[in-house]
Description:
By secondary structure, this protein is mainly alpha-helical. The protein folds into two domains: 2-170, Periplasmic binding protein-like II (D-Maltodextrin-Binding Protein, domain 2, 3-Layer(aba) Sandwich); 181-247. Helices cover 63% and strands 6% of the residues. The protein has helices spanning 2-16, 26-31, 42-50, 54-64, 75-84, 93-103, 106-111, 133-147, 149-157, 181-221, 224-247; strands spanning 35-39, 65-66, 69-70, 72-73, 87-90. The radius of gyration is 40 Å and the shape is elongated. Residues 235-248 have low confidence and may be disordered.
Amino acid sequence: MIIYQFYNANVLSSLLNEEYNNIRNLKDLLESGLKVGVEDMLFNKDYFKRTTDRIPLELYNKKIVRNKQNNFFDAEFGMSLVKRGGYAFHVDTSAAYRIMRRTFSEREICEVNAVTLFPPQYVGAVAKKGSQYKEYIAIGVSKMLESGLMNRIKSIWDSRKPPCVKMRYSSIISVNIREFSMALLFLMCGFTIAIIILLCEIYTIKIKREKRSKIKFYRRKLPSEQFKMYKTKRIKKNRVLCLDQRTV
């Protein structure tokens, strides 16, 4: 009962714990066994041609372009590979999140992890140095931020990531043999010990039955006086054997 409660709690806690995410940057992605693809866009190809960063170049040469095969796909096909698992695909978030909302399940959305390939690009309005329009541009951008117009435009052009609803009871969770392998080992040991004890009991019962059958046989065949003599001789023989064992 104690072993059952222990392994029941162990399996339950292992299922409720969060899975550890070991891919947090490009270096982890490069050292992992995942296949990598890139959205077929001109600015993506131009980035790999012009960048001097070592890790993106290694990622490009080792996983994106291999054996004269370029892993440049459109967004729909690339996200379908991500949905199957074991694949990393570089794509614009606005396109990726829109496809995820339409095709991914709740569990698959929660399992998706994002890693940044491009460094953040900061843009701004261009104006001549000392221009009189500099103040007007700053005031206009501030008013757009205060009124929420910038967030409105961003929500239209940039899709948000679908929410991760972690409802474990709504999906099937598989339990590996690793979680309860020790319980099976204890169970097999218990079966083995029980079989050994059963064989010993059968052997002892068989010996007792043979002795009883011999006694019944001699009781029928021999007269009462001879049977008593046989019984006393048998007792004396046992005593002699006991004495011999003690002396040894």
